[in-house]
Amino acid sequence: MTGLRICLIASSRFPVAEPFVGGLEAHTHALTRALIARGHSVTLFAAAGSDPLLGAHALATEPFEPSEGARRDVGAPPLQWMQEHHAYLGLCLALADSGADRFDVIHNNSLHHLPVAMSSAIPVPMLTTLHTPPTPWLESAVQYAAAGARFVAVSAFTAEQWRPSVRSAVVSNGVDTRRWAAGPGGGPAIWFGRLVPEKAPHLAIHAARLASIPLDLAGPVLDRSYFDAEIAPHLGPSIRYLGHLDTEALTRRVGGASVTVVTPAWDEPYGLVAAESMSTGTPVAALARGGLAEVVSAESGRLCASQEPAELADAMRAASRLSRERTRAHAVAHCSIEAMVGAYEDRYAELAGLRHAA
Q: What is the pTM assigned to this prediction?
């Protein structure tokens, strides 16, 4: 398709840069790179410190600092909340003023309510991807979204969660299956992601011990008290913490693992970790939460109906015996970034056409 001028709005919480803090940052980075490679002009608005090779623009050039009087307000929200509000308010006002001269479409990947709430004041058609379950702020914003605004969800599960507020199509997340290349396997099990209670890596530790399978953990420690209480005491020769790795180092570790353990303690909207693992050929043992059942197939992993470590240990053993070739073939067929970007391009073209028709 003819190259479009795309405004891509990212989350303001963490930079879109290596090493990625979470799946949303990895997704945004991969999407931006793929769109540029396909001939589109992409302007990414993201947190300060995002990858300069993407041509990223900081959401707020000057962080908001409330006055002393404002700080004394007993009802004042946290400073981080106000800084995010300030950043998105500034961006939305700028798009309302000059966005029509600069962009054909806006693709909102943020988790903030303002781009949706102000979409009717912005003279550029907007597509919003729903990356999370419903939140009160976003549910409120959806009621004021522009009539021509479009929404997609990252899984059928997430689309169903949002159905009371908005009907959305499904565009599953995708991974760069060339970057997440096939690996040899045969090594320890691996768990990777944010080390926080809702991702529950402690469950992987308990299951690995029951399965008598060594386990490596990788990712940022965002909750130090949780890490110190639930992870650190178990570290040793058979349970290792590898640190927060960039994609190159992480793909080597994942591709060399015998199985990846995925243990969400919440309903995972999609499950990018599972798709990345399967792309390297490493099968997945996961809790059947949220959209994971749409990502992991019988030929690429095993799903557990409960959080019982014994059931997860059995799943680890069973998954580690699956064919790595079939596991990767499933990822290439169902989880590729090419399929995701193609689906987004179809929606961009529809939105751009509606704008020109108007």
A: 0.93
